[in-house]
What does this fold into?
Amino acid sequence: MLSTTPRFTPALMLRPFRRRDVGALEEAVNESLHDLKPWLPWAQGTYGRHDALQYIKESLNAWNENRAFDFSIRAAGDPSRHLGNVSLWFTSHANKSGEIGYWVRSGSSRQGVCTEATARLLEIAFDELDMHKVTLRIATGNLGSDRVAQKLGFFHEGVLRQEVRVGEEWLDHAAWSLLAEEWRVERARYATNGWV
It folds into this structure.
């Protein structure tokens, strides 16, 4: 099972969720609902304490069952403030492939938080979980998330048509991927840029 020890980058701490994170998660989501709503099925309507608690319970269960690994993103200098989520899960154990998903609260966007957190999660994927390939699926038009994929050297594989329903609309998703051998080349650049 993946260690629950917090991981660090130059500016961030990534750690598994705890039950006491309910209030911080609820606050971050509510600050960001307007920006998340066009892209994510779960960001529709209202988001309350019960929703945050259910998410954390499922996150803890998934971690314990080795299904998915959700990390709370925190500033290293202010670990009480929840900046967003970054998650990793296997899509195929046999093929050693996985997927990453992420979001960052509106007040912390465009500051490199998502790029830095995802760069660190790629270390976990390839070094700790021995994955061969990691993918991102990003709703077309979500330019901020596309920029993260581009900065980290992901390869744009194509578009998955009408992949996810968000509200009443079916969204296409851009498929991005990074192979272990590509990551081994890119990680020196991640360090040079101060992401890991």
User: Anything to note?
Assistant: The domain at 7-192 is CATH 3.40.630.30 (Aminopeptidase). The chain has one domain: 7-192.
